Predict the structure.
Amino acid sequence: MDTRHHAALALAEQGRHVFLLGRTKRPMANCPTCRTAGPRHDRESCPCLTCHGFYAATTDPRRIAAMLSAHPAGLLAIRTGTISDLLVVDIDPRNGGRLDLALMGPTAAVATGGDGWHLHYAHPGGPTAAKLAGHPGVDLKGDGGYVVAPPSIHPGTGRPYRWAGDWPVNEMPPPLVAACRPAPATTVTPSTRATPTLTGGGGISSPAALLAAHLGAVARAPEGRRRTTLYGAARGIARMVAAGALTTTDAHTALYAVGRQAGQSDRDTRAAIVGGFRAESVATEGIAA
């Protein structure tokens, strides 16, 4: 039994659901059957060892052994959230992330292969945000998320993820819990320039209401579905641009605003907008970098 197998079993004994990622920290590709299974396919109960990303995570020693045997080069990962009773504070110095010792109490910690930190805390229950309030470069991995686990090797640096010290997984201090809670929902007001320019059968009767519906879907999306919902909203809003009911500038402005509100990075928001517009064959010129 290799060190990766020992690590996976140790995590499973603690109630952490583990699975495997590809060499680039991305979920492994679904098998042909799962790719074509359709929306009624239950990802949680799928028997495949590595399909559907973190939905394949398990604490079953037999499945863990089979998973590791089938994919000896896969990176060990943990499904975060209430299922594993785990909320991870993900500190990325490349994006300005810093340890805040006054806020972040001692707990089990991983030094990542990319010079960052993963602080493993017991999940505080209830909803949590995607980012730590007031701390740029610090993400929160809860429901709908995952983190790479030791002894995986960082694909960019070639250095291992490793446990730092021997702290147990502790509860979050109350101030940290408060900083992890989602910000109160705010209303995104569509631009006053979002007015219809088409008439007849090809027109949109209420562009402002349609825009608000698309943006509202993103604002209400649960963690783990926000990026996908943002992409869907971008496609719908791109169709509004194509119909002449909304200017490209107003579309981009509204999507960026709701993306930030939903805790998405500007890079991920831009990717969702570009992807959605291209899927609808709408020009992407002028989208902010």
